[in-house]
Amino acid sequence: MLSAQQLNTFLSHEFPQCPAVVEQVGERSSTVRYKVDVSALRPGGTVSGPTMMLLADVALYAAILGTIGLVPLAVTTNLNINFLRKPQADKDLIGVCTLLKLGKVLAVGEVSIYSEGEDEPVAHAVGTYSIPPKQ
Amino acid sequence: MLSAQQLNTFLSHEFPQCPAVVEQVGERSSTVRYKVDVSALRPGGTVSGPTMMLLADVALYAAILGTIGLVPLAVTTNLNINFLRKPQADKDLIGVCTLLKLGKVLAVGEVSIYSEGEDEPVAHAVGTYSIPPKQ
Amino acid sequence: MLSAQQLNTFLSHEFPQCPAVVEQVGERSSTVRYKVDVSALRPGGTVSGPTMMLLADVALYAAILGTIGLVPLAVTTNLNINFLRKPQADKDLIGVCTLLKLGKVLAVGEVSIYSEGEDEPVAHAVGTYSIPPKQ
Amino acid sequence: MLSAQQLNTFLSHEFPQCPAVVEQVGERSSTVRYKVDVSALRPGGTVSGPTMMLLADVALYAAILGTIGLVPLAVTTNLNINFLRKPQADKDLIGVCTLLKLGKVLAVGEVSIYSEGEDEPVAHAVGTYSIPPKQ
Fold it and tell me: Domain for residue B51, yes or no?
């Protein structure tokens, strides 16, 4: 299994300029932090929806790669996200991912997104990655 | 009904730094361009998934606001996106949105996303916005 | 390409007791009718949500099989449905499916569902089928 | 809070002929059983997708009504379901629902569906209900 640091090195090549950092990776799981700064904010001081979609996508990718190793051609095929509450503008977002299935061809996982330190999620996503066949 | 230019002025405040531009807005519809540059690319020369999610979100927002007027507190409650084909790295993305429902409380629309000039969509999204009650 | 009648014969084995009938099948498309009777109704005289999910699922299946031939092991991997308006209790439901992608491994399509004769859809679904490798 | 028995009495009016039974209802949660018999099966001895969609829909409804009381006009606005593994033909399906949000207007919840006694879910759904304003 990969370490969070190995994943961050890999992700910094895959998603350059992405302010998401893997904090923890386990068997079929990950925790990813999105450092909220002004570029992620909308008027009214809330975090934009696409920011949370990006965090969900990265958390799924981290949980999959952390379990099966670095597969650069794994791609998202579906993502469904529900926005539940207004995130706080002055707190980082934390995405907690659990894989529901890790097959040879498809992986499916869910991600709960929190404003750091809060109990109730601000968003919840479920996504599918297609895993390329081994060479 | 608003013009594309009025919407772009509004969006540049709502989504600062967003490289999506409304090209056309009609009754329950919009066309939005995402100018693809290096920051949207992943290794292998393809456009990242979150970039397409952002384009879908903006296209829905443009179609809704273009029809009902500038409602800054309309927020996305759900977005579902399927990634269908690899986008081309050297072409802009074009999102074409049609609203399926525009109720008093919820609006639902679909967005087909194309690499400019191509016939087959690279992604397809369906999203819901919650519209706040009028004051 | 298969005829609607060939598909109905096949579906009557795959989904016994299913009151959905393929009316038309074309290249990457289908039209399927659900005969609404009392078993599909909820109090207030509307059609139940699961009835519309079933219709969407059958319409996707018909469009895929109509194009690639009878593949009994194709299975749904994802279905997302939005309910838009109250269906009419005294009209059949008509599902109109168009495939967005028909790959070797995955097929993705959308289905608009109408109360027969109405212009505005009562529901809209997007679904993915996994297609098994050829023997 | 309602009891499982009160909910079953109510559901038998709302969804007549529905073979789903509420086993447990708690604060923002429910457990619902679908008695698998031949009418839910597809060739190959697996349970049909629409059967699992129905179970997810009922589990969400039970968790919402169990918490806020009998609101007959609550309706599903969105349901997204991923099918993960082949269910077993000779076991009932168990849907376990947790609400992610229970607002005044919208409720969102997730449902994991299991073949009874198994550890890994056969399907996972996320759905939204619209709650009508109180009279």
Answer: yes
A42 contacts B15 by C-beta, under 8 angstroms: yes
Contact A80 C80 (CB under 8 A): yes
Q: Which residue of C has its CA nearest to B119?
A: C100
pLDDT in tens, C61-82: 999 999 999 877 889 999 999 9
Distances (CA, A) of C28 to C65, D50, D101: 9, 22, 38
pLDDT by residue (tens digit) across A93-113? 999 999 999 999 999 999 999
What does the mean pLDDT of chain C come to? 90
CB-based contact, A54 to chain B, within 8 Å: yes
Q: Does B69 map to a domain?
A: yes
Q: By three-state DSSP, how is residue B109 classified?
A: strand
With contacts defined as CB-CB under 8 Å, which chain A residues touch D112?
100
Q: Decide if B121 touches C, using CB distance below 8 A.
A: yes
pLDDT digits (tens, 9 = 90+) for A28-86: 999 999 998 866 666 667 788 889 999 999 999 999 999 998 877 889 999 999 999 99
Residues from chain A that touch D130, judged by Cβ atoms under 8 A, are none
Q: Do the domain assignments include residue B116? A: yes
CA C128 from centre of chain: 12
Answer with the residue of higher pLDDT: A132 or D6.
D6
The structural domain count of chain D equals 1
CATH of the domain at C95: 3.10.129.10
Q: How far apart are CA D90 and CA D83, in angstroms?
A: 18
Best A78, A110, A126 member to test C by mutation, with max C CBs in 10 Å, is A78
Q: Mark which residues 69-98 of B lie under 8 Å from C by CB.
A: 80, 82, 84-85
Residue B29, domain extent: 4-130
Residue contact A78–B83, C-beta within 8 A: yes
Choice between A87 and A13, residue whose per-residue pLDDT is larger: A87
Please name which of D5, D39, D2, D3 lies closest in space to residue D19, comparing C-alpha atoms. Answer: D39
Cα B40 to Cα A68, B49, B54, D28, distances in angstroms: 26, 9, 11, 40
The alpha carbon of residue C36 is apart from the nearest alpha carbon of chain B, in Å, by: 23
CA of residue D37 relative to chain centroid, distance? 17
What are φ and ψ of residue D8, in 5° steps? -65, -40
Residue of B nearest to C123 (CA): B100
Spacing of C-alpha D92 from chain mean position: 13
Question: Of B106, B110, B129, which to mutate for an interface test with D (greatest number of D Cβ within 10 Å)?
Answer: B106
DSSP letter string over A57-94? HHHHHHHHHHHH---TT-EEEEEEEEE-SPPPTTS-EE
Letter for the amino acid at B5?
Q
Confidence of residue A12 (pLDDT cuts 50, 70, 90): confident
In a domain, A118, yes or no: yes
Q: Which of A57, A72, A78 sits opposite B43 (nearest CB)?
A: A72
